[in-house]
């Protein structure tokens, strides 16, 4: 279904996310345990979605988010965090996160967030294709 990168400092969390997402027929194209590695994996794979933990070491999730969106403004990013404060959630959403999930991650919450994020991506792609088709048809 979708190519996904998982960035979480915990090997256990990455394995749990990987198992759940692969069970739903997604392809995990990269994993990262810190922020620098997360950005490198994003650049290397250009996934449909990156699941980004906010508390990553070396370069935190918000810094990775900013860096990805600076170079790829339409990137689909789902953030997971242990922080459940309204100000933190709003800040992440204002910066461009498509979905925000608080740990511990429940399977159904993750499935719903991934599905909604991928639906948003598909809608953006359909809209871009329609605009391109209209532009090309204007030359006929």
From TrEMBL:
It comes from the Bacteria. Pfam families: Response_reg. Keywords: Coiled coil, Phosphoprotein. Gene3D superfamilies: 3.40.50.2300. Residues 3-118 form the Response regulatory domain. InterPro entries: Bact_response_regulator (IPR050595), CheY-like_superfamily (IPR011006), Sig_transdc_resp-reg_receiver (IPR001789). Residues 107-138 form a coiled coil. SMART domains: REC. This is Protein CcdB. It comes from Paenibacillus radicis (ex Gao et al. 2016).
């Amino acid at each position: 279904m979708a190519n996904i990168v998982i960035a979480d400092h915990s090997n256990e969390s990455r394995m749990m996310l990987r198992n759940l997402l692969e069970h739903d027929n997604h392809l995990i194209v990269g994993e990262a345990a810190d922020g620098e590695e997360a950005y490198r994996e994003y650049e290397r794979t250009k996934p449909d979605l990156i699941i980004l933990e906010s508390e990553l070491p070396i370069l935190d999730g918000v810094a990775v988010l900013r860096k990805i969106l600076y170079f790829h403004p339409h990137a689909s990013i789902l953030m997971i965090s242990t922080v459940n404060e309204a100000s933190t959630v709003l800040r992440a959403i204002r910066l461009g996160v498509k979905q925000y999930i608080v740990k511990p991650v429940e399977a159904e919450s993750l499935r719903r967030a991934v599905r909604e994020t991928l639906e948003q991506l598909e809608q953006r792609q359909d809209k871009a294709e329609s605009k391109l088709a209209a532009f090309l048809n204007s030359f006929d």
